[in-house]
Amino acid sequence: MLAVRYEQYGGPDVLRLVEVPDPEPGPGQVRVDLRAASVIPGDWKVRAGHLKEYFPISFPKIPGRDGAGVVTKLGPDVDYITVGTSVCVVAQHVEPGTYAQAIVRDRESITPLPRNLGFDEGAALIHAGVCAWICLVETAELRSGMRVLVQGGAGAIGGLAVQLARHLGAHVAATCRAENAAYVRGLGADQVVAYDRGDFAEELKDFDVVLDLIGGDVHRRSYPVLKRNGHMVCLIAAPFENRAAEFGVRVTTPRINDHRQALDFVAGLAARGALKPQICARMELAQAAEAQRRLEQGLVTRGRIILQIPPTGAAA
Ligand SMILES: NC(=O)c1ccc[n+]([C@@H]2O[C@H](COP(=O)([O-])OP(=O)(O)OC[C@H]3O[C@@H](n4cnc5c(N)ncnc54)[C@H](OP(=O)(O)O)[C@@H]3O)[C@@H](O)[C@H]2O)c1
Q1: Nearest atom, ligand 1, residue 217 CA
Q2: Is residue 152 within 6 Å of ligand 1 at its C-beta?
Q3: Total structural domains in the chain?
Q4: Which among 235, 252, 269 is the end of a domain?
Q5: Does residue 132 have its Cβ closer than 6 Å to ligand 1?
Q6: Could you tell me the pTM of the whole model?
Q7: Please, what's the largest Cα pairwise distance for the chain?
Q8: Which residues on neighbouring strands pair with residue 194, listed in sequence order?
Q9: Which residue's CA is minimally distant from atom 41 of ligand 1?
């Protein structure tokens, strides 16, 4: 099969499209022929060597944290799915990833692709949706009537977080650049502050939850937005100064453990139309390096870049 992989840390040019052996499912596992993979910030940060302490990868490494495709082979003792089922999959950074024509997964890391979604949308949905779910539902316990600020509402996770918070009945504020304000309102935000026009810290007060997907100065200035005993939920790789004691709030950095229950909840919400995954651009698998370069340069907005993967046997 074809896969994109790298043999050392470095810039996007270390990514190569190569022929590798087909993966074989072991006991309890299935082989999924992938048709789409999403390109996420963690993919380039791991490739660049920025997250070595958290994700001790081995080389050669196939990147890709999520994707979608069709189950084509069952390993021994698999009775939970049948050949031909379309699925969304997740893989951890330390495992062989989804920039490939096939992957082997177990029951915990797949969920049926919602019937109303194509493979590209399934890939755009699953990891980003699970991140939003873990942050807002499992960590912040967001409920109807609560007030949440999503820092980064035009991003892949932010866009799904806005939709999820709206679905839960919360009052939703979000930040984005001015040209994305109407887009983010369209996802369900009640209030939008454009970070290139206004100052969210002046406009927003008394929030129960801030979901920080940005970090840095945005993180530092987000504390006064929270009520006393409010909850700052951070999904950022860079270190930050924890000001919880100064402001009387809670700060949590959840671990993204994409377990089956979260995958199923997210896919279920998408099947009901409550979550609509957002796609910024579609590219070919062979363009993975260019896709990661765009992401690294901050040129990706309004959802994921999706790598479209040719079926086994077709030319890339
Ligand atoms: N720790 C973990 O396990 C974990 C897991 C998943 C993700 N993450 C992190 O979560 C973050 C978000 O991931 P993602 O996939 O959603 O990223 P993404 O789609 O690449 O997000 C990009 C968005 O960030 C927005 N943005 C940039 N600067 C901003 C600012 N000052 N204020 C508000 N918005 C701003 C941009 O909005 P505009 O387009 O409007 O400019 C852009 O749409 C990343 O840093 C990622 O590494 C961490």
Answers
A1: 31
A2: yes
A3: 2
A4: 252
A5: no
A6: 0.97
A7: 59
A8: 176
A9: 177
Distance of CA 129 from the midpoint of ligand 1 (Å): 13
Nearest Cα residue to 125 out of 293, 264, 29: 264
- Count CB atoms within 10 A of the CB of residue 199: 10
Mutate which of 65, 150, 214, 294 to test ligand 1's pocket (most atoms within 8 Å of Cβ)? Answer: 214
CA of 235 to the centre of ligand 1 (A): 9
Asked whether residue 316 is domain-assigned, the answer is no
> How far, in Å, is the centroid of ligand 1 from the Cα of 109?
23
Domain that holds residue 146: 128-252
Q: Do 147 and 213 belong to one domain?
A: yes
- Which of 301, 304, 306 has most ligand 1 atoms within 8 Å of its beta carbon, as the pocket-test mutant? 301
Q: Is residue 315 part of a domain?
A: no
**For atom 35 of ligand 1, which residue has the closest CA?**
152
Q: Are residues 140 and 209 in the same domain?
A: yes
- Supply 235's token pair: 């999904």
Q: Is 24 within 8 Å of 104 (Cβ atoms)? A: yes
Q: What are the pLDDT digits (tens) for 255-296?
A: 998 899 999 999 999 999 999 999 999 999 999 999 999 999
Torsion (CA) 131, 135, 137, 143 in degrees, nearest 10: -130
CA distances from 282 to 1, 250, 287, 296, 303 (A): 21, 39, 10, 17, 11
- Residue ending a domain, among 252, 272, 298, is 252
Q: Which CATH number fits the domain that encloses residue 286?
A: 3.90.180.10
Q: Is the CB of 1 under 6 A from ligand 1?
A: no
Same-domain status, 274 and 169: no
Domain presence at residue 313: no
pLDDT (tens digit, 9 = 90+) per residue, 92-106?
A: 999 999 999 999 999
* First CA to last CA distance, the chain: 10
